[in-house]
Specification:
The protein has 462 residues and is of the alpha+beta class. The strands form four sheets. It has a five-stranded mixed sheet with strand order 2-3-4-1-5. The protein is globular. The chain contains 18 helices and eleven strands. Helix 4 crosses helix 7.
Length: 462
Amino acid sequence: MTTWVSADTIRAQFSQCMSEMYQTEVPLYGDLLQLVNDVNQQSLQQHPTLKVQLEQTGELPRLSQERHGAIRLGKPEELVNMRRVFAVMGMYPVGYYDLVPAGVPVHSTAFRAIDADALNRSPFRIFTSLLRLELIDNVELRQLAEDVLAKRQIFTEQALALTAKFEQQGGLDANDAEQFIQEVLETFRWHTAAPVSKDLYQALHDQHRLIADVVAFKGPHINHLTPRTLDIDAVQTGMAERGIPPKAVVEGPPRRNCPILLRQTSFKALQEKVTFTDHQGSHTARFGEIEQRGVALTQKGRALYDQLLTNARESLGATPNEGNAERYMQILQETFQAFPDSYLELAQQDLAYFYYFAKGNTVKQGKRLWTQQDLLDLVTTGQVQIEPIVYEDFLPVSAAGIFQSNLGEDGKAHYAVMSNQGIFEQCLGSKVCDEMQLYTETQQQSIDTCLQQLNNHSFAGA
């Protein structure tokens, strides 16, 4: 009987190979990994309760291997095949992100594992964007871009053949899995030779730098890999101290006692040499990013977060940049005082998602069963412990902020046409998963297990 390699194993091995490849291509990324590791070790030593929390939720072993990447695709066919390839790794499209209102002509999803245990085994994610060619207002240039994309194939023949083999037989053996990883890596590799002239590249670049990044190259080179830190402010300071130029502000919410959602920063994009069909030139796209992940917010929590972030940006009256970074962070800190900053308050107000753990010291209550309505009281009295469900996804405003900081302040454009989820899912060939439903299900599974343990303990010996 043939033994299939698990999707989690393929994903973990691919993630490691991707990291090794990117360190070779962008040596500064290796420096970033060392900085993040140093900060994480220091954070765990200084905050023992944080270490206990990560052990309780199963996140501690995955911390050193945690990373996400980002790619940009040019046509629906590429998106469909990328979905098929990622399915071999147990990664599925989660969430829809519209970056068009922020002046970036793409809409996106995140391919990732969707089961909590699978995420702890390998939390690798790829933020995958699809270019909106119809937003190029120059009809002739748009046609030239379509012609270039029509000619390219971003996957090797063997990568697609092994993907089809997986689909037909339901898995890959060890030899096929190893070959699959190496073949798919070719899709994400940086190519110094571009299949367009320098003039066409410049015309695309003048429309939007990101359009040039997608259309003018042989494939969707990985444009960043992102390790997870436990203290992004320490990393932001550490980058400057180690000669790594950081972006002006940390994207996302301000520093808090109880981190929420996602905070991100990056070092600025590299200028890299490119050989066009007729001239030498350069291109700026690939950069290093770092993230700090907090608790996932409910719909109610996200609504409050979005409103406070909007308020802060309106108070600033400009796009956050190097000139106003200090003022923006001060405004952000003040504005977010309206957001509760203890896990108990977040749970009581239904603002965030949590794991629930029975502590084994529950006071018996006769024959009455504990119910879900009792849980918060039991948390308050210390008989049930809560730990945050980590946010596994992304933030459109933060993603746009990272894009813009690396594309240059002049990279922002205004588009009359908005993206929409229906168009994206038609291009993808499937629906995207609802991330809120995934968090709700994870929390409910935890609640059900906790209540079962509580009630079994309560009646033990009764």
